Amino acid sequence: MPPENESHPTLVIDRLAYGGYGVGRHEGRVIFVPFGLPGDTLRVSIFKDQKRYAYAAIQEIVSPSPDRVAAPCRHFFTCGGCQWQHLPYEKQLYWKQEILKETLERLGRIKEPPLLPIIPSPKVWHYRNRIQLNVGDKGASPKGEIGFYRADGEGVVAIEECPIADERINATLKSINPREIRKRGWQVELMVDEEEGSVRLETGKGAFSQVNSEQNQNLVSAVVGLMAVREGEEVLELFAGNGNFSFPLAAQGAKVTAVEQSPGEAISVSQVPRHEVRFIYNRVEKVMRDLVRQKRKFDSLLLDPPRKGAKLILSEIVSLAPRKIVYVSCFPPTLARDLQFLTRHGYRLEKIQPIDMFPQTYHIESVSLLQKN
After folding, report:
1. 295 in the Ramachandran plot: left (φ > 0), alpha (ψ -120 to 50) or beta?
2. Is the pLDDT of residue 204 over 50?
3. How far is the C-alpha of 258 from the C-alpha of 266, rounded, in Å?
């Protein structure tokens, strides 16, 4: 082994961090290492130095973690889609729970967050009902190559199959004519039509929808369970998407006002009183200002914001003063920030239900219940 120097230190990985990084220390400085695992002894090369901490790439696995396994995908270390294929699934679940807890404690100043055990995904592989394909035009990938963005950001990785994509999507990938994709633009989606069982090629984006169909059923059950709506209860739902939660809540007897900026095709739900779901298509921030000005009152509030969280509407949420808030989050850092605000403004945090929507990745979904003090 070559002698160690300042730019190529040897370190032991002791934990995982949000983003999928292995975390180790060298001479007191924290070093984040993509694809590093707890228990690894690694020789690394620093590629981004921030003085107090740094990011480094693995140059040599001096001694592998006892948890390290072979990743099934040949593109794993170059494709940016997955970060943990080399970590057994039960360990992925453990670290997602730990990372969520640590993030809430460190960023949200929430002592002993009331975490329930994480709900595993029914499928660990082939769970995605939708993938996004990109056409390469720069960096390491030839122009016109079709695949996923590289982990280093330098173009795309050409793919013919993906182990986390629905097998119907993989069958389409093997048979699709690349020219069909290129003539539609630089980015397209392959999406499973659950009703027809076929795969569609889409060029536009509608309202957000969950990509893990089977786990989405558990997510909806968790939300409905924590909402615990009563007959006739007035529910305000923000970032409602295509009605993923709206219609199940209406089926429980709630009167739902659902706010979504981008109209999309509503989900197909039978035997649901459609008149009990009223959609408002506008910017959530504007709708919330209007509702506060009108002095509207709701029994409960449900929100499922994008990664940036709900910072721009937290004051309006507090002004509306619902007795109960259920917060669906896909990004622990902004969840921690928003929960800290709400708990300082009249709400207590009762439960947090982590749900693994994205096996083989670092992403963490959760559902939090807050009650008014």
Report:
1. left
2. yes
3. 12
Instruction: Report the b/e string of 301-339 with b at 16+ CB within 10 A.
Output: bbbbbeeebbeebbebbbebebebbbbbbbbbbbbbbbb
**CA–CA separation, 307 vs 332, rounded Å?**
9
How is residue 116 annotated by DSSP?
A: P
pLDDT of res. 146: 83
Active-site residue, 330 included: yes
Which tokens is 28 given? 């007191």
pLDDT at 267: 55
Residues 134, 144: Cα–Cα separation, whole Å: 9
pTM: 0.91
Q: 76 CB contacts (<8 Å, ≥6 apart)?
A: 82, 85, 86
Nearest to 15 by CA among 67, 57, 54: 67
* Strands of 324-329's sheet in order across: 277-281, 255-260, 234-238, 300-303, 324-329, 365-372, 347-355
Question: Looking at 73, 79, 82, 330, which residue is catalytic?
Answer: 330
Dihedral of the alpha carbons of 185, 189, 195, 196, in degrees to the nearest 10: 60
Assess contact for 360 and 84: CB atoms under 8 A. yes
**Count of alpha carbons within 13 Å of 73, Cβ hemisphere only?**
25
The two structure tokens encoding residue 225? 């369970």
Ramachandran class of 173: left when φ > 0, alpha when ψ lies in -120 to 50, beta otherwise: alpha
Residue 274 has pLDDT above 90, yes or no: no
- Secondary structure class of 252 (helix, strand, coil): coil
Distance between CA atoms of residues 312 and 59, nearest Å: 43
Arithmetic mean of pLDDT, 199-218:
81
CB 357 within 8 A of CB 164: no
> Where does the pLDDT of residue 51 fall: very low under 50, low under 70, confident under 90, or very high at 90 and above?
confident
pLDDT, average across residues 120-144: 81
For residues 17 and 40, give the distance between their C-alpha atoms in angstroms, rounded to a whole number.
15
